[in-house]
Amino acid sequence: MASMKWIMIHVAVVVVGLWSGVGVAQQVPCYFIFGDSLVDNGNNNQLNSLAKANYLPYGIDFPAGPTGRFSNGKTTVDVVTELLGFNGYIRPYANARGRDILSGVNYASAAAGIREETGQQLGARISFRGQVQNYQRTVSQMVNLLGDENTTANYLSKCIYSIGLGSNDYLNNYFMPLVYSSSRQYTPQQYADVLIQAYAQQIRILYNYGARKMALFGVGQIGCSPNELAQNSPDGRTCVARINSANQLFNNGLRSLVDQLNNQLPNAKLIYINTYGIFQDIINSPSSFGFRVTNAGCCGVGRNNGQITCLPLQPPCRNRRDYLFWDAFHPTEAANTVIGRRAYNAQSPSDAYPIDINRLARI
User: Fold this and answer.
1) What is the set of active-site residues?
2) Among 113, 144, 245, 291, which one is most buried in terms of CB atoms within 10 A?
3) What phi and psi values does residue 13 have, to the nearest 5 degrees?
4) pTM of the predicted structure, to 2 decimals
């Protein structure tokens, strides 16, 4: 009970520090981010891709304006970055230079998946494998900056690694049968297993290149996104069960992978973030989180504002704080803040397994 009280006091101090502009002590030397459009902060801007967000109204509530973030403001990892005490946000790989990389790098790429072919109909993107290869290049640069491999390995062992992929392997692969054959090749369980196997392969490479403290973010409720509600929900409100159940199979595999790799890899400290469960809490009781609209995008076109994503210079809704979703697929800053804070400081025993990011940073 005393330790719980201490945690609550610590949270209050962190939040007050952020709101008042007072710096919070930086908990880890660096933060590395791997993922898709949920956390991309500019890596797709220069790619020949349809998956871009470097135009208004994206970034309308972000201090720097449109940066390539697929939200009106901060992403989940931006929130975690603040809570970890960093002075600024982690730079995208596309423009991280020199000593910048010592604070970490964001490798995330919109439309990216665990599988190489995922998202190919949207054009260029950097798959999970490609992101890990970019990280390997960064480590070589860090060795040059820090002097030798042992110093670099020791430095990296204290850093946090945030990994969140899989959404596009469902949205822009498995549940797009006219473009991809995966749903004819695999049952949902087989597909989840294949994804986890490929995911584990990349995690092992990260481990071999110094990663020790890794937070694996599960897939959210894709079947509740405005896009799926617009296309596949009869009433525009009821989540699409077959998609959500497939997502849960993947998440179950990811949670098991945490145990497996913690047992197999010496000094590995992997955790699982239950994004799906946090979303479920919000959808079950939106008003308790300050949300009023959970089934439509704040900005978009068509049914549920979910059939086409936010167009350049399209006026978004004014009451953005009331919306769970910013566009057809991506959460608002308000929703990202809930997820980021609960990933960092679990508010329910199911939010993070076996520990949250705050405790991961301290061990």
Assistant:
1) 37, 327, 330
2) 113
3) -65, -45
4) 0.93
